[in-house]
Amino acid sequence: MMKVRRFEAQGLREALQQVKTELGPQAIILSTREIRKSDGAFGLFARPLVEVTAAPPDAFEKVKEREEEKKGGRSERALRASLGILKEEVASLREEMKGLPLGGDGPALRRELEELRNLILALGEPFPEPKGKLPPALEVLRRQMIFRGLSPEKALRLLERAKAELPPSKLESTFYVKIYCARLLMGETKVTGPLRGGRIRAAFTGPTGVGKTTTIAKLAAGLTFREGKRVALVTVDTFRIAAIEQLRIYARLMRLPVEVVFSPGELEAALRKHQEADAILIDTAGRSQRDEAQMAELKDFFGNGRLDCHLVLSAATGPEDLSQVVERFGEIPLKSLLFTKLDEANRFGVVLNQSLSSGIPLSYFTTGQRVPEDIEVATPERVADLVLPLPPVEEKSRA
Q1: What's the predicted TM-score (pTM) here?
Q2: Helices (H) and strands (E) in the chain, counts
């Protein structure tokens, strides 16, 4: 197994020092990101940490050596037979693991098994073949990216760039090409970063059932308890009484003011009433992109571009429906795409597809129902890991 390690520290300098001490000055840095640990009540007072993922300096060479050992003259028929056997073994393994008391290692083992299963399925899928033949390592990654939801065109473009930029010797290593492509993905991913500024005025819109109200509650809790900001909530979700009551419950628990408005004029009055607030978060009714009346009403509220509008989408939605939603809601100025339900999805490439196709950056991801824990700021590293997951982590260090 590739020795990939993650290091956590209070700051980037400390984390990099850990990497240098443990793996040497020539260690390969794979990614960095900010994380939070739920140490306080409800995770509200969790302290931010920096996480650095790194590999030993000889990691790529060891992978190359193992791949050289595996090379042989197996025919396509033999390869497909091997894939069939592997699929059966993975299915059997999954059944056996269901009854095992795995303890703290369970989630990591299950993720590793799931990634192995996905890769085997991707290798056996009848994906459309590219016009030009790709080296074996690139073909494996092409299938893996398409299987995880990235469009075939975007996957091929990425791999052709890697093929043009890497020396032939490096193209023989699937792991090396994977890391290189992950870095290319990071470079293409646009993100907004978290809600910032002295006067945050943000509206959240999107289709029905994507979790807008719960997402607003998570953001409000973070701004209130972690950053100490004065927050006010507004809802124009007048179609569903239950949604208004849900927001009121969250507001009461966090001791925040909440306003219910029925027209653009009332929205303007609510904004003036709470003009001293650091942040005003606005909930909206779920709308169908095919309902012309509902879309026209949305333009009445937010078409002037005075507010930052964030389009909330479910990562579990199919690619065609997502494209339609982004196109129609894009008729109003959009600040970002915010994807929910990553815990219910398995083809995460659609997240990047929509951002790249529309040119709209990503802001946040949600990964469950817990308030406020299950939300994270979208980062290029996280997006790359969703499309091209890093190898399983062998061990973990912490300052």
Answers
A1: 0.69
A2: 14, 12
